[in-house]
Every structure is written in C-alpha cells, then in structure tokens.
Amino acid sequence: EPDVTIVSGLKDMVVFEGDDVTFRCQVSHENAKDVEWKLQDVALQNNEMNEISVEKERIHTLTLRKVTEQDIGTVTFRVGPHTSTA
C-alpha cells in the first residue's frame, strides 16, 4: 500500500461563537486509511456536532458545528505518521 502523505495542510481559522467552521486537508492518495481528527488532543467522532467526511476522494474535511468558547484550541489531522495542525 502506498505511503499516504499530506499534500495540502490545515489552515488556521477565526470564527464567531455559534458559527460553523470547516477544516480541509488534502492527502496524496484516495481511500486513505488510519485517518484521525483531534481537537485539543481529543479524538473526534462523526456526530451531530462534528461532521467528518471525504470530498473528491482525497480531501478530508472536519466541520465543527455551532462552535463555543470551549472549542478554542488546536485541530489536528493525522494520516499514518503525518500530521497537520491549525
């Protein structure tokens, strides 16, 4: 299986409380396995507050819904040994 790398990393975002924010990270290969999103070192799951998806096979997205002050912190995307933070 080819080593999947990060082609385009996360960008820092500034949003207002109550708004949604989307982070995008592009990887080098489709169907990447061993992918993880974290907020403040806590692994995120796909649920009503966090939407985790893949667009166009290689662009992994995380949408945080109706952010609050508690959501301030570092977002991390990891694929295999490679990480990107914002």
UniProtKB/TrEMBL annotation:
Stretches assigned to the Ig-like domain: 2-86
Protein name listed in UniProt: OBSCN protein
Keywords: Cytoplasm, Disulfide bond, Phosphoprotein
Domain of life of the source: Eukaryota
Main location as per UniProt: cytoplasm
Compartments (UniProt record): Cytoplasm
GO cellular component: a single term: cytoplasm
SUPFAM superfamilies reported in the protein's UniProt record: Immunoglobulin
Gene3D superfamilies in UniProt: Immunoglobulins
